[in-house]
Recover the amino acids of this structure.
């Protein structure tokens, strides 16, 4: 459904570009949730903006690669240009719903507006559809809430409204950039469940971006782990948690405080992620890696097949004795 | 808990008057909280946003005004303290804030920020001593003493939070109130800061009030946990009991919602567990009743009191009877 190949996003002059996202490739099927996980600054949001055609201008630009939506290349097209050529069925939701909603418009009108961008229907028909969408995202009293302003809703309800706006174009692909990070866990749990259900019911592909491995484990079908602008590991979710191949993935899992552990020390990854302009030669993770060898600092690591559907960008992936 | 508590809070109430739709509304942020903190103990306070956990910390620090109640720190009254007493009290109880970007003055050097508590209280005998104490404190939180001449914008989030901790421990406090100290940090950095807090606790014999919405983090650092809902404590027990055998229906719901790093526990469909309550207007009876699967008629008229149940305290009509 969504195929991204070799995507590279850069800033700076053409003769000396600084890559923020470097050679990112992934594929998401109908009804599938791909979790894109990484720490702040790793390029996960930049990837999603590039796919969506929402890179800020002037600034970062797509220097190489393809973004294919249902077979058509939409790379570099802004969302409204996609509407014109009929390949606009990608929607996006963001972390903070209050900044994405217009504070002086009633939520019903905001959803109806999104409906009318994509469908030529009357205003009243759009409002009817807006109400259906609010029901779809399980907002109680949908009819009443059409006339509410965003500030009258709780954070969780606002995020539901954002999802309703996103669904207005009947998307084939939904990109969710940390949609639950600002919410309480109890509300997060409900929103995650809602997203899972919508993906199944509407056969929608979803790119779910988060920094939270716990959220990934409970929601994603497949996972891509990002570090310093590159995808360093992809695997089905079970495989990733049972047998992480990349030392960075393993490090991320080890430093999570898991309940019931008590007073033990947490393992942490020493140092911090490199700045995009100062990425070291060779493997970008080498300075922080527990398994680093001399050759890692010299040459870029290969993308190795660790198992079925499981790849790691590492010359010496952890296999726990299993042959590669 | 045979040792006398270093901090004892009794029936603390804090309220705010806020303007809403042009009218003044009264918000009871903390509504009768009692807790104790033993020397060397870490008490975790957990709850959803708006439950009053931050206000408890701020009221103890005297950053928010208490309506009523008592706070005793090492035998001294906190709520009524004035002038010099209040000053010295604020050297004994220190606070670490959530946002390491907002809590440091961007125009002051790291050294000046760290030394602030000492400067205000004229604790340094000479410039040389000041420089030495700042360097020692920075080293204690794992930063290069050369950072003293740098400014906040030159530091990463993790480094800034270390500075925030350095500011707190410079006057050698007995209690640190840490309000969401790692919530703004990436997991790998979060682990470094949590380890640092554990080290400092051991080395300096600190007692801590650790406020967080994250049960994973709370479970990792705390000896005991208090769960707050709408300004009241609904359950308190040792950490293991809370995590492994929660009793209050709210604690249960909170535990169930924590994202667990285990792909066999997948979210399959939408579940409705209700929204966090509005702070305006507390329902009669149990505040959790509107969301509670166990709620009975009694819950809707009679507010449950926090009562002992074995080694723990629970405020619920429907458990342990």
């Amino acid at each position: 459904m969504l195929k991204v190949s070799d995507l590279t996003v850069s800033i700076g002059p053409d003769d000396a570009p600084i890559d923020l996202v470097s050679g990112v490739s992934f594929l998401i099927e109908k009804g599938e949730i791909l979790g894109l996980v990484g720490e702040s600054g790793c390029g996960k949001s930049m990837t999603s903006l590039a796919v969506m055609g929402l890179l800020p201008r002037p600034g970062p630009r797509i220097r190489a690669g393809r973004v294919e939506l249902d077979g058509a290349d939409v790379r570099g097209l802004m969302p409204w240009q996609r509407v014109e050529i009929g390949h606009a069925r990608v929607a996006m939701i963001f972390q903070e719903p209050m900044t994405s909603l217009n504070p002086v418009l009633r939520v019903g009108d905001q959803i109806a507006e999104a409906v009318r961008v994509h469908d030529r229907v009357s205003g009243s028909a759009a409002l009817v559809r807006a109400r259906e969408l609010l029901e779809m995202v399980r907002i109680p009293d949908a009819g009443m809430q059409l006339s509410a302003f965003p500030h009258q809703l709780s954070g969780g309800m606002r995020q539901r409204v954002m999802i309703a706006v996103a669904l207005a174009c009947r998307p084939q692909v939904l990109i969710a950039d940390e949609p639950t990070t600002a919410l309480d866990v109890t509300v997060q749990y409900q929103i995650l469940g809602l997203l899972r259900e919508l993906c199944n019911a509407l056969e929608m592909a979803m790119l779910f971006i988060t920094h939270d491995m716990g959220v990934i484990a409970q929601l994603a079908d497949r996972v891509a782990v990002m570090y310093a602008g590159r995808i360093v590991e992809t695997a089905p979710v079970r495989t990733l948690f049972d047998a992480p191949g990349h030392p960075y993935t393993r490090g991320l899992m080890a430093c999570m405080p898991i309940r019931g552990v008590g007073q033990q020390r947490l393992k942490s990854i020493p140092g911090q992620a490199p700045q995009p302009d100062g990425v070291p030669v060779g493997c970008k993770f080498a300075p922080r890696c527990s398994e680093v060898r001399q050759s890692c600092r010299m040459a870029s690591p290969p993308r190795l097949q660790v198992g079925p559907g499981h790849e790691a960008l590492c010359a010496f992936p952890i296999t726990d004795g299993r042959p590669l | 808990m045979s040792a006398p508590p270093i901090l004892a809070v009794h029936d603390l109430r804090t309220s705010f008057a806020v303007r809403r739709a042009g009218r003044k509304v009264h918000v009871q942020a903390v509504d009768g909280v009692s807790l104790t903190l033993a020397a060397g103990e870490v008490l975790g306070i957990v709850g959803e946003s708006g439950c009053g956990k931050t206000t408890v910390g701020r009221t103890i620090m005297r950053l928010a005004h208490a309506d009523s109640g008592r706070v005793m720190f090492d035998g001294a009254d906190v709520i009524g303290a004035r002038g010099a007493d209040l000053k010295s009290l604020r050297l004994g109880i220190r606070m670490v804030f959530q946002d390491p970007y907002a809590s440091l003055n961007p125009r002051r050097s790291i050294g000046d920020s760290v030394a602030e508590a000492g400067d205000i209280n004229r604790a340094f005998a000479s410039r040389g001593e000041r420089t030495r104490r700042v360097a020692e404190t920075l080293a204690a939180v794992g930063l290069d003493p050369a950072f003293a001449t740098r400014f906040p914008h030159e530091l990463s989030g993790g480094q800034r939070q270390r500075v925030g901790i350095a500011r707190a421990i410079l006057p050698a406090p007995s209690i640190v109130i840490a309000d969401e100290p790692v919530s703004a940090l990436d997991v790998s950095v979060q682990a470094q800061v949590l380890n640092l807090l554990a080290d400092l606790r051991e080395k300096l014999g600190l007692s801590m009030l650790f406020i967080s919405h994250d049960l994973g983090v709370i479970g990792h650092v705390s000896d005991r946990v208090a769960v707050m809902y709408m300004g009241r404590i609904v359950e308190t027990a040792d950490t293991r009991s809370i995590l492994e055998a929660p009793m209050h229906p709210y604690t249960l719901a909170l535990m169930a919602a924590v994202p667990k790093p285990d792909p066999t526990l997948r979210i399959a469909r939408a579940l409705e567990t209700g929204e966090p309550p509005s702070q305006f207007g507390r329902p009669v009876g149990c505040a959790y009743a509107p969301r509670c699967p166990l709620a009975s008629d009694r819950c809707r008229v009679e507010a449950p009191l926090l009562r002992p149940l074995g080694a723990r305290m629970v405020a619920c009509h429907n458990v342990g009877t």
